[in-house]
Design goal:
Number of strands: 18
Number of helices: 10
CATH architecture of the largest domain: Alpha-Beta Barrel
Order of helices and strands: HEHEHEHEHEHEEHEEHEHEHEEEEEEE
CATH class of the largest domain: Alpha Beta
Shape: elongated
Largest sheet: 8 strands, mixed
Helix content: 25-40%
Strand content: 15-25%
Oligomer: single chain
Length: 377
Amino acid sequence: MTTQRIHDFFATRRPDGPCLVVDTEVVRDNFNAFKHALPDSRIFYAVKANPAPEILRLLASLGSSFDCASVAEVEMALEAGATADRISYGNTIKKERDIARARALGIDLFAVDCHEEVDKISRAAPGARVFCRVLTDGEGAEWPLSRKFGCVPVMAVDVLEHAVNNGLEAYGVSFHVGSQQTDLDAWDRALADANAVFRAMAEKGVTLQMVNMGGGFPTRYLKDVPAAEAYGRAIFSALRKHFGNRLPETIIEPGRGMVGNAGVIKSEVVLISRKSAEDKTRWVYLDIGKFGGLAETMDESIRYPITTPRDGDETEPCVLAGPTCDSADVMYEKKPYPLPITLTIGDEVLIEGTGAYTTTYASVAFNGFEPLRSYVI
């Protein structure tokens, strides 16, 4: 997964300390794969996955739109060259003054999931288009999303009707099937719910136009995942199944699937130890951990591929931990990670598939460690 361009960067630049390197050629390939797999869907890149300006500029130049979770991300997308009509404010939890600021910047598409959010938008962005997020179960996802966002389909109908009564345009519905979703049928279940909301609103005299099918498209870690084409076929089949020949406008919001496999983190082994003379399990400490950008190892949900200069030697299961003085800073312990027995202090290791949700999850200065440095090539 480490491209030759990334290998060459490490060989010539030799950056000190842990760092992320992202290959934009991989990002370009991923964008084209999504465009080919779902040619009738608009791509709204989830900026939160990796907001590096170089990535945003590349995607803007390719014609991507952007899903933003904050005013800061809206401003980033605009700075990268996107126009306001290519940006949605997709967070269902927004301050009213942030809604007003986004509206002043030209944003016209907002997510909601309750009456109270509708009320804020009707005051701060009168006449705007809104889509209501519907709850999904997230079954099949390695990083399932909680009940924090969305509402049940019956309530979505009430929320959208409330939007209409408050002068907003009820534009559509959205859902998210869970991050790193490997079940191709997940979108079928969610689209069935979306269609139910469409039908109920039609009975009330309101024609919805758009289904935001969210993200969830995976990147490859230790296990193979279906290609973008497989997701495209499954999603198109589900759309035809539930909407027939009257297909709505559709949006997808790839984040991890757009940049995850484009990035590699270089790290260093700081310490290798055991907890007693009889302990058969080695503890391997890296100079990066949960607080340095690997937050998605929480509950060992995401297991990153790790390559070492000792690959090919005999391996044994190891506990893998970060460098900070926090007991939570352990990546893999419940299911130890197989690493070469010959691995030693000072060895550099590459943590692959780390282009998404690493720089944005890294702490500012916990224990005095600097934020994860990022290079985009």
